[in-house]
Design goal:
This is Extracellular solute-binding protein family 1. By secondary structure, the chain is of the alpha/beta class. The protein has 2 domains: about 1-150 and about 320-390, Periplasmic binding protein-like II (D-Maltodextrin-Binding Protein, domain 2), CATH 3.40.190.10; about 155-315 and about 395-440, Periplasmic binding protein-like II (D-Maltodextrin-Binding Protein, domain 2, 3-Layer(aba) Sandwich). It is about 45% helix and about 15% strand. The strands form 3 sheets. Strands 1, 2, 3, 4, 11 and 12 form a 6-stranded mixed beta sheet that branches. The longest helix has 18 residues, at about 1-20.
Amino acid sequence: MFRRTLTRTTALVVTAVLAGGLVACSGSAAEVPQDENARLDIWTRRPPGDPSEQVSKDLAKAFTKKTGIPTKVTAIFDDFETKLQQAASQKDLPDIVINDTAQLGTLVDQGIVREVDPGEVSRTKDISDKAWDATKAFDGKHYAVPFSAQAFALFIRSDWRKAVGAEVPKTWDDLDALAKKFTKDDPDGNGEDDTYGWVVPGSTKRGYASWYLSSFLWSSGADYFSGSGTKLAPAIDSPEAAATLSWFQKSFCDKTVVPGSETAETAAAHPYFDSGTGGMYLTGPYNMARFDEAVGEGKVEVVPLPAGPGGEATALAEGENTYLMAGSANEAGQLKFAEFAASPAGQKIGMNGDENGSIVRLPINTTVDMAAERKDERWQTFNDIYTDASRYVPTVPDWTPFLQSSAKTFNAVASDCEADPESELEALAKDFATELESQRAGG
């Protein structure tokens, strides 16, 4: 309860600060003198020094060359959201933020992003409908321009799988069996007991435990909510959800998950795979080049998550949006940058071929021929999953409190073999109901 209350309070404080200072919630140009040649400060959620930072700078450089508008790119990874809130409280927001689609509700709730009319975006029909839907907030309005899309798939050490004599998993029982073989059968052949089945970013930070488990929940027939619009109700305490959380807990208790995963964020989890500690990892396409370089080409296969007990396979859809921040002195330039980033030219720069550092995972511009830009056929696997078997997080006014509270519950159950998933989810459902009422989304 404390974490959720803190999140909501921080949002209200930021909004109040903005309303009384640099910008109001709408951040209209009438309140800030405009200069169409003013520099655009661009924040992107990337690790400084990572190849993706350079690709981000390449994108901005190409934009400047095309338009003459100067830019400055700042890559921030650790505590990105906290630093953005600090910038808001100091009335010093960047002009552009490239960040996760799941952050949309929080940014709108804080009042620090501008509304976007898709009809005013050049060649808006070239942008996929699914990507546009990911820029739509609970009020039905758009608050960003799509930039990148992705879905999650299962990375498997194919050399390990062949070494233990296993087939590509087709069911969750197959997943369990393969995880045990990777843990017990010395798949790397070094004679040491130092390998595990699963790599899991199970930390509560940024809601990672829930973010990771969402694909499994949906594939089991479970969901976070039932209903729609302002008539939502908690569904997280369903029998299907309890069964999935029990399955998740058992993986930890059977020790087929890499030790330390309970506190691992993605930055810590990725090395578990590329260092040869874990053999299966449900993650995004941005890791392909990294894993190939570390493990060796031809040793990493990408397959869809098998259908769960619910009879379907549903992966988390994600991506990034270009957010036009409130209070900019160059609103015209903001829109031009968002249009360029979504254009074929901008998308191709961001895709970066098959090289490491991609910031456009799957193009949101339907005129871009992905096969012409990338030769690795595994990208098509991700594209098929995104198109046919993925979904974004639920549309609520602010998803973050639900993400955090569910991550805390999932993490607690995974960390304690004596915990009762059913009773923990019942308590979580009550928290969900309170939060839905607070956000005026519960019927």
